[in-house]
Amino acid sequence: MPFFGDLTKLFSSQGPVNWEVARQIATWTATEGEPEANVDPLERIRLEELCRVAELHVADVTGLSTSPSGRRVAVRPVGRGEWAGLTLTAYRTPLERLATSLGQATVDAADPSALGEDELEQGQAELLGGFAQMMSPLLLGMQSGFMVGHLSRRSLGQYDLPIPRPLDEDLTVIVPNLLAFAEDWSLPPDDVRLWVCIDLVAHHAVLAVPHVRERLEGLLLEYVGGFRTDPSGLESQLGSIDPSDPSSWERTFGSPDQVLGAMQTEEQRRLLPRIEAVTAVVEGYVDHVMDTVGQNLIGSYGPLTEALRRRRVERNDGDRFVERLLGLALNQAQYDRGARFIRGIVERAGEDGLLRLWRSDAELPTPAEVDAPGLWWERINL
């Protein structure tokens, strides 16, 4: 990673995260330091054709707008490096909220007024606080870059994690990952392309519903703002870095526990059930739409879906960092929980019953109702 030779870039930042370092590390991790070939223009043509098919069928099944920004949804085939750069921009708000939260915790922990009259003790606290504040943008930039770079190596599109993205953003598909998956599982590439398009359009439509978007964004930002950390851990982290060995930087900051290793706060523990309830319902509903639409359109839908749904619960460093960062523990139990809730509503009220989820914030289920769909149905019908 040659940019580590430029100390000015490393320690200069105009905000709580060093975005230049984040961008370069994300690109380097995504491409493994190699030049990235341009995506074949024919991929855009084929994906746009399949996206139109997905839009029509998803809109028909859900009754939701697939063009929430007012313009027609566009699909954008990208490489891993380009996707990493776009995703860093999309995740900017939660990452800066995290940086602000950790930075304030560092200042509080190093406040010399809380240490009595000992001048040496106060001086050490001031030095530690100043050093931690100087290092914080760099560390968060590095961690964010490694996180997004790792995600880019396994994601198929922008909604592998159900995090709202800008409504006017094109739907991105990571073509090298899509083609590699099709080849590894001996599946028709067009079947995989259509599956990914349906999944993207369904997620885009649900996460654009105003009260769903506001609820999820609010919970995720509140969770990120609850982090507290011990600045004394910086010394042990930095001691393991060998400036001449780029891999030592990744070993140190590529793990989710390095920056988020502090104990989870009580505030965050209270938020988790609410985050898990919303994400379980969103994922359960999207899976239901996928099954309804995909079975009629995709010849290899059965084995393709089995392979992709098994793949999504495999975790890497990037996934674990996002889970720790946002409280998105998307394991098999969470997906099964969402599926049971959706199935329970369909059994009681048919497909029309599901439309009630998207009418108002008050009609989103509570954590207890996700596990007992009958309670939700009774409440919203009162």
UniProtKB/TrEMBL annotation:
Pfam families, alphabetized: Zincin_2
NCBIfam families assigned: DUF2342_F420 (TIGR03883), putative hydrolase (TIGR03624)
PANTHER family: HYDROLASE (PTHR39420:SF2), PTHR39420
Record-given protein name: Zinc-dependent metalloprotease
